[in-house]
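I hope you will forgive my troubling you with a question about protein structure. The record follows directly beneath this note:
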Amino acid sequence: MTNQTISMPFGLRMKLSAMMFLQFMTLPVWFNTIIPYVKTLPGGESWTLWYGMFAGFGTLASPIVGMFADRFMNAEKVLAASNVVYAALLAACFFARDPATLFTLLMVACFVNMPGWSLVATIAMTHSSPAAFPHIRVFGTLGWVASAVFSVAGIRWLGMADFDTSPWIFACAAATALVSAAVALIQPPTPPNARGTPMSVADALGLKAFSLFKNPRFLVFGVLLALSMIPFQWYMNYNALYLKESGFTYLSLTQNLGQAGELAFMAALPFMMRALGYKWSMVAGIALLAARYACFYGSVKLGCPALDFGGILLHGAVFGLIVINAQMYVTEVSPPELRNQTQGLMMTVTSSFGVFLSVAIFDSILAANVRPDGTHDWAPPYLAAFAISAVLAVLTAVMFKPETQRR
C-alpha cells in the first residue's frame, strides 16, 4: 500500500485533492442550516418536511448524469458544467423569499450538484490507487469543515449574528461553486469508457447500473445500505435544528466538528478497511451510528452537552465505515463501462431512497413530540434512532456477504 501511495505524482495528488475539497465545500455552506433558515421565511414552518427531502429528490439524477459521463463527455467537463449551473441557481436562491420558490430552486440545484459527489469519486479512483483514494477523499471532508469559515466570518467579523439563517449562505456557496468549476477543468482527462457502444432506453435513463441488483448479494448490500441511511440521514437533516433548540450559537461550526473528527479518522481508514474487510467495516460503522444516538439520548436525559460533542465527533468514523466503504465496494464490483452510473446509483440509494425513508419515519416522530412552545422533546427520536441502528448492525453482520474482501 505504501508504494502505491508514494508513486502517485504530487501534482496529480494536489489537483485531485483540490477538486475534492471544493466539491464538498459547495453544499454544507447552506445545507447544514437550511431548515432553521426556512423557519424564518413567511409560512416556512409548514415546509420543513419537504425541505428534509429535497436533497433526496436531487440525487435521483445521479445515475443519469453518470450515464452522460460514461458515454458522451469527460467526467471533469460534466463536473465543471454542473457547478456553473449550480452557482447560477444558488444566486437565484439569494433573492427568493417564498418557501415554495426556494424549494424548487434548491431541488433543481441538487439535481445538478449532488451527482458531482459520484463524479469526483470516479475521477479520483480512475487516477489514483485504492491505497491513495482515502487520503484524497479526506480533502472532501476538509472542504466540508472549512465551509464553516463563512459562518464564523459572518458572525464574528461582519457582526451578522443571524448569518446561518440569512440569504448570504447561498451567495457564499455560489462563489465556491464557481471556483470548483474552474478547478474541475484542470483535472486529468477522464474520458467516457462506454463511448460509441450501443445504447438502450435503460442506458439513456442511467438505469443500466440497476442490473447489479440481479445479484442477490448486491441486492442485500443495497437494501442494508439504504436502511442504514434512515438513522444516518436523520442526523444530516435535523441535527442543526436540535442544536438550535439546545442553545448552540454556531450551528454550522458545531455541526462541522463531525467532519473535523473525520479528518483524523480518514488517515486510519485504509488500515481499518484492510483489516476488517467490506462486511465488518459496514457493521462497525452502523454500530457506531447507534453509539452516536446513545450519546444524544444521554445528553437530552442527563443535560450533558459533552455527550452532544461525543455524538458529533463520531461522524467521521460512521461516514467512513459506511459511505466510503460502500463507494469502494461498488467501484470494485461494477463493470468499468458502468462505473460512473454505479457511483450515481450508490448516491441514489444513500441520498435519495435513504432520505425519503428517513424523513418519512422521523418527521412523524418529531411531530408527535412537539412541546407547547414549539420546540421538541428529542429523547424519543434519539431512542428510536438508536434502536434502528442497533438492529441494522445485527442484520448486516448476519446477512451481508460481499463478493470480495480485497482491499
User: Anything to note?
Assistant: The two ends are 9 Å apart (CA to CA).
